[in-house]
Amino acid sequence: MFHALVAVKQVPDTTNIRIDPETGNLVREGVPAIMNPYDAHALAAAVEWKHKLNGRVTVVSMGPPSFTVTIREAIEMGADRGILVSSRKLAGADTLATSYVLAEVIKAVHAEDPIDLIFFGKQAIDGDTAQVGPGVAVRMDLPIVTYAVDIRAVDLDDDTVVIERKTERWTEVMETPLPALLTCEKEIAEIPFAPLPDLIKSLKYEPEIWTEAGPVEFDVTRIGVKGSPTVVYKMGTPPLPEAGEKINAREKGIQAALDFTFTKAEEAGVLGAMLGGAE
Amino acid sequence: MTTRRFWIFIEQEQGDVHPVSWELIGVARNLASQVQEEAQAAGDEVLVEGILLGHNVRGIAEEAIKYGADHIYLMDDPVLEHYRNCPYYQSIVALVRKHQPEVFLIGATTLGRDLAGAVATSLGTGLTADCTKLEMGEVRGANKMLLLATRPAFGGNIMATIVCRRHQPQMSSVRPRVFPTPAYNPDAEGKIIQEDVDATEEGARACILEFIFAKEDAVDIEYSDVIVTGGRGMGSPEGFKLIKSLADAMGGVVGASRACVDAGWISAAHQVGQSGKTVRPKVYVAAGVSGALQHKVGMQGSDFIIAINTDPNAPIFEVADVGIIGDLYEVIPAMIAEINTRKEAGA
To answer: I need a surface site. Which of A243, B20, B99, B281 has the fewest CB within 10 A?
Structure first.
């Protein structure tokens, strides 16, 4: 029977992040926490294949207890089992320490219930690093396909999967042996409306909370701050660029606005570039 | 005497070099010069070295030297002809273990991101993604200068400087177009060092069945001189027709804000910003783009920025050289007409 595992992360909705102009601090209040959108699409793909192959889906997340909301959301979307790895000792982890913890957890799940495909989002929208998926693949010694846009075929008899991945230059159709790890673009699957039974199930579902006390035994030198080779040395606000001039086309007229624009472009030496198109 | 090696990954696919490779040579050269004094005092040698994997790619190694690399380690083998994660990362890890570079830079492209995380994890070292500023600096407690890697965090609201104190190489990924291309010196000399390849076809565990070339994939906004970007202020995906007309008149390409891509109005290949592409064209036109920080981070290096927005308080005006307060559906057709008139007058 097909078993998919999906790693999900809860992120602040960065489209809504604001900076307090007085203090220069991040305004966290009122910023909604959401499931990382790429993870949500990866999960939708896993659930699609669960239905096709009569399988099941496990989700794993690492973070504070508040992440249980995201696990329940995953159950609502069709996952069968949700595990949250949560402990203060895991806090402050960089991508290396994070991939260690996730790999250990996934190995433990795999040992009792073998996994065919592991799904990650291509990156999380709060860090944009795209490092944890490849990191987990290396630690588990699995083939990886990043930037997956379509799963063409899953063959559980031959233990192979055929995936389309989109690079900057072309789309590659790639075949790899199972188990394998994918990192997914949004095109991998549409997010469907949750069916009522899954919705009801999610309301009652209690995610499994795994901690440093078990069931997985972590090497304490490899988790949290201790296990993270990178540290934040300093933080600052980005330098403010110099604003140019504004012209109100509604008051001055469009032609005046254009004349002004082209004069400025000429002064900046880019007029030729502006007129660069073919006739 | 020890050798302090500053490494960069030269990215090529089907014999085409990604220009970020040359940009990285420039960055590494700069970092190397910053430790020169320290190295001289200690009697150490400082080298900028590139690593190049592929099949029949020696010509690229020669080019890299002309962009400023002292040495190129070349792994040339049929198994490396097309990029695949396993053979590439395993070959590179072996090379790193052999030569022990101090710093290792990789382009933050789709290929580079696929590779960098695997290499860093395998080596158990730190990797800082998408750096916009890199310098060597003295850090308390360290016996030599360390790489200070600065990157935007929280959608560009904060700049975080990251260090990797106790692990080598100190790895960073750098987006294309964040740093300039260094000068090309046809007389530059360097050494190409051929390395053995242990990777095998069986160990690749991935087989590329087919390459599909789509027109949409060919959008190359990163290296275009002119970009016209549409934002949510267009009101509907139809707005991209007008954006495209202006881009065509200017000989440029179409960009998009994240909101438009998230709404499914246009493909992600067009997305400019922290979660899309970093661009620095000669002319950047932002029409109906409000100017969220994460967008500005990706385009504020442009030479000349024109913003068109009905809202006089739109943040995009903070980075624009010229801000036109007005309706893009009125301004753009007039701008296209003006461009055509000027072109005819010039012809």
So the answer is: A243
Does A257 share its domain with A144?
A: no
Domain annotation covers residue A235:
no
Average of pLDDT values for B6-27?
97
Least Cα distance to A62 among A39, A79, A78 occurs for A39
Domains and CATH numbers, chain B: 3-204 (3.40.50.620), 216-346 (3.40.50.1220)
Pair A218, A264 in one domain? no
The C-alpha torsion from A21 through A25 and A30 to A36, rounded to 10°, is 120
CB contacts of A260 in chain B (<8 Å) are: 322
Residues of chain B with C-beta less than 8 angstroms from the C-beta of A131? 113, 116-117, 120-121, 127, 129
pLDDT tens string B245-284: 999 999 999 999 999 998 999 988 899 998 889 999 999 9
Q: CA nearest A141 in B: which residue?
A: B86
A231 belongs to a structural domain? no
Indicate yes or no: CB of A146 within 8 angstroms of CB of B85: yes
A208 plus A277 within the same structural domain: no
* Cα of A278 to nearest chain B Cα, Å: 6
State whether A192 and A246 are in the same domain: no
Q: Which residue on chain B is closest to A27 by alpha carbon? A: B157
Task: Report the CATH number that the domain containing residue A41 is assigned in CATH.
Answer: 3.40.50.620
Residue A17: pLDDT band (50, 70, 90) is low
User: How many structural domains are present in chain A?
Assistant: 2
DSSP letters, A108-175, are HHHHHS--SEEEEES--TTT----HHHHHHHHHT--EEEEEEEEEEEETTTTEEEEEEE-SS-EEEEE
Nearest to B77 by CA among B47, B52, B97: B52
- Residue A277's pLDDT band, with cuts at 50, 70 and 90, is low
**For the segment A61-109, what is each residue's pLDDT rounded down to a tens digit?**
999 999 999 999 999 999 999 999 999 999 889 999 999 999 999 999 9
pLDDT in tens, A171-187: 999 999 999 999 999 99
List, as ranges, residues 155-184 from A with C-beta within 8 Å of B: 162, 164, 166-177
Among chain B residues, the shortest Cα distance to A127 is held by B153
The reply to whether A166 falls in a domain is: yes
Same domain as A277, residue A176: no
Q: Which domain covers residue A128, as residue numbers?
A: 3-222
Rounded to an integer, the average pLDDT of B106-124 is 96
Specify if A159 maps to a domain.
yes
What pTM was computed for the model? Answer: 0.89
Find out whether B173 and B20 touch, Cβ atoms under 8 Å: no
CB-CB under 8 Å, B259 with A15:
yes
Q: What is the ipTM of this complex?
A: 0.89
